[in-house]
Amino acid sequence: MKQLLEGYERFREGYWREHKELYSTLAREGQSPPAMVIACSDSRVAPEAIFDCAPGDIFVVRNVAALVPPYAPDDKYHGTSAALEFAVTSLNVRTILVLGHSRCGGVRTLMKGPSEGKHDFISSWVEIAKEARQRVCDSPVPGDFDAQCQACEHEAIRVSLANLLTFPWITERVKDGRLALAGWHFSVETGLLEEVA
C-alpha cells in the first residue's frame, strides 16, 4: 500500500498538476473516447502506456486473458458485457480493440486444461476461449508448450472478435460503418504489436 500511496503523491505533484485543465474539462464535459480497449488484467500490459494515451482517450475494460464472452442477456453478473454496452450504446466508441499479449497466464491455464486444484472462477472464465484451444490442438503447432500457448493467444483474440459480433448492437454498428473491430497481440518481450486478423 505504501508504494501505491507514494505513487499517488507523485501523480498529484506531477502528472495531475501538469494536466489539471484536461481533468477539469473531462469532469465538466464528460468522456467521449473514440476507442474501447479490451485488455488482459496482466500487470505487464497497460493499454494506456502501450498506446501512450491521455485520460479520456480510451475506454478500457480488463479481465483475465482479454476475453469477450458471447452475448447472453440474463440476470447474472456480466462485467465485460456491461462495459461493452456502455461503451457502444452510451459513449458511441468508434473502435473496439481486443488486445492480447505474450506469456498470458489465462491462456496458459486454458491450454493446460482443467486443473486438480479448485478454482472458483478462473477455469470457467477461460473456457470462453475453449474453441481457441481446440484449434491449436487440432492443428498441432510445431514446438513446445510455449509455442502452443502463443498460437492460442492469437486464436483467443479471434474468438473474442467473433463473440463481439454476437452482440446485436455491435453487429448493427459494424454493418453500417459506425464501429470497427480490431485484434492486436502485444509482445511483452519485444514491445511489438502484431495485428491479428
From TrEMBL:
Gene3D superfamilies: Carbonic anhydrase. Binds 1 zinc ion per subunit. GO terms for biological process: carbon utilization. Its EC number is 4.2.1.1. It comes from the Bacteria. This is Carbonic anhydrase. SMART domains: Pro_CA. GO terms for molecular function: carbonate dehydratase activity; zinc ion binding. Belongs to the beta-class carbonic anhydrase family. Zn(2+) binds at C40, D42, H101, C104. Pfam families: Pro_CA. Signal peptide: none annotated. Keywords: Lyase, Metal-binding, Zinc. It catalyses: hydrogencarbonate + H(+) = CO2 + H2O. InterPro entries: Beta_CA_cladeB, Carbonic_anhydrase, Carbonic_anhydrase_CS, Carbonic_anhydrase_sf. PANTHER family: CARBONIC ANHYDRASE. Its cofactor is Zn(2+). Reversible hydration of carbon dioxide. It is an enzyme of class 4 (lyase).
